[in-house]
Amino acid sequence: MSEDKISMRQLSVLFFVGLLSPAIRVLPSRTAQAAGEAAWLSGLAALPVALLLCWGLFRIMGALPEGEGLAGGLERLMGRFGGKLLTLIYLLWGLLLLSANARLCGQRFLATGYRNVELPLFVLILLAAVLWMTRGKFAAFARAGEIFYLVLSITLAAVLLFALFHVEPENVLPIWVEDLPGVGAAALPVLSILGYTVYGAFLSGTVRRRKGDRPRAMWWMTAFCLVLTVLQFINLGNFGPALVARMESPFFMMVKGIGVQGAFQRVESVVVALWVLSDLVFLGILAFSCCTMSRTLFGLRRERSAAIPVVLIGLTGALLLFPDAFSLHWFSDRILFIGNLVLGFAVPAVLLLIALARRRR
């Protein structure tokens, strides 16, 4: 990755595509549990905090020379030992995220219609594709992400358009003032998903810096939160908050009710298959980030040298750490949820305070 560069728009597109993978797994079932029919507002409630995260990461990275990502920035802020220690924590967490999310993607794929495939085999195929991508150039991965973005945008727009005709307004309206505390609580699952964007800061060394990068990234963050708002509004409008809160994959349940008369009656198999593109981008982002951190920590010549160990650790964790669906979902709902909030928002906030304090000296 040292020899190839991408634009901030390409990095933003990668995260837009990749974060759709955990988003449709978590939302709106988690938000419906907290806010009921007002859960669709959680994306808007999370937006100000998400924009502050973007602003803060750019402030932290602003003083770094081009080609240096957050791993190098941590050493400048916290010293060599402190910086490497925190980078190691992010690396270990990233490897755990890679393992858990590979398993979660596999379980979702099988649960939504492909039950004849063995879970370990699908996880193996998925991570083999991730290994192939991480052994290549990051710029090629970004260009593939742009193609996936086009495909998934058209797919998602079509799904939401057809599902819009099944929305029952009483499932999502009216919203009262007493619903607002629940909306605040429902914003936390959204922020947990957006916490993955901190790994974009570790990849920022691959970005060609241009004027307007910060507002461009913040625009993409805004667009993503708006998409989550529309997605949840339509999903909740189809089933109602009480039913959605008990569903494991409400988005794909909504897709099952979509048909195009005269073309094909059921489209869920097509959408499920296409959503693997989002899974690949999401896991690829985590793998590339872990490779970048490994290069800084262990003095590797190139990031791709760490690709095989990173993916093998991810595969081993996916197959051995979570023996059943219960342990996997317990980890996802509790440990992963809290960890992403801490490492995605709390730690960057502390780093921002340190950076601002040093600049005032």
UniProtKB/TrEMBL annotation:
Record keyword Membrane present: yes
Ranges annotated as spanning the membrane: 44-64, 85-104, 119-135, 147-165, 185-205, 217-234, 272-294, 306-323, 335-357
GO biological process, one term: spore germination
Highest taxon above the source species: Bacteria
Membrane topology: Multi-pass membrane protein
Record flagged with keyword Transport: yes
UniProt cross-references to Gene3D superfamilies, sorted A to Z: Amino acid/polyamine transporter I (1.20.1740.10)
Compartment(s) where it occurs, according to its Swiss-Prot or TrEMBL record: Membrane
This protein's GO CC annotations: membrane
A Pfam family assignment: Spore_permease
InterPro entries: Spore_GerAB (IPR004761)
Main localization (coarse): membrane
Protein name: GerAB/ArcD/ProY family transporter
Species this protein is from: Lawsonibacter faecis
